[in-house]
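Design job #97: recover the sequence.
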């Protein structure tokens, strides 16, 4: 299975592709999409969509794992993140990818073992889990890879549960 992890952001969106099975996986590629905050928001959304769609076209993931929306004091920030998430969900749906959404605390707990982990801790665990020489930078890309890794752990668990339920029935 090949998973595209997305850490949504309206100025910097992190993406990372990981492939493997269960708890065995490896890095395919990662990066970020940066957009100019001085541009019209619609143009930024179009750039984000086109850039990630190109990544999906080139790397052919089977699934997309994306960070769920989180509580924000600033309503404008929350709205923009919601719109970025929306275009990513649309892109995945158009490409026929299975979609999974994970809360930020669940991603941190799955990857680091602590739901309030700092960015550096997430990056370091991603480095260790993927056998990299250095933590991926910027942190948006490391977060995207953490989301993809989280999907491997939880998708594998869900697969085992489904098999157990089918076997019992």
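Job complete. Output follows.
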């Amino acid at each position: 299975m090949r998973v595209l992890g997305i850490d949504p952001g309206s100025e910097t969106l992190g993406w990372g592709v990981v492939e493997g099975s269960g708890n065995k996986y490896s890095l395919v590629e990662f990066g970020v999409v940066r957009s100019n905050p001085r541009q019209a928001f619609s143009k930024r959304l179009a750039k984000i969509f086109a850039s990630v769609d190109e990544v999906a076209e080139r790397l052919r993931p089977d699934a997309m794992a994306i960070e769920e929306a989180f509580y924000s004091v600033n309503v404008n920030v929350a709205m923009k993140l919601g719109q970025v998430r929306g275009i990513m969900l649309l892109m995945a749906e158009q490409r026929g990818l299975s979609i999974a959404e994970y809360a930020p605390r669940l991603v941190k707990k799955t990857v680091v073992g602590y739901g309030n982990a700092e960015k550096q801790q997430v990056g370091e665990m991603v480095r260790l889990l993927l056998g990299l020489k250095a933590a991926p930078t910027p942190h948006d890309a490391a977060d995207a890879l953490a989301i993809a890794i989280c999907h491997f752990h939880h998708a594998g668990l869900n697969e085992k549960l489904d098999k157990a339920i089918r076997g019992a029935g």
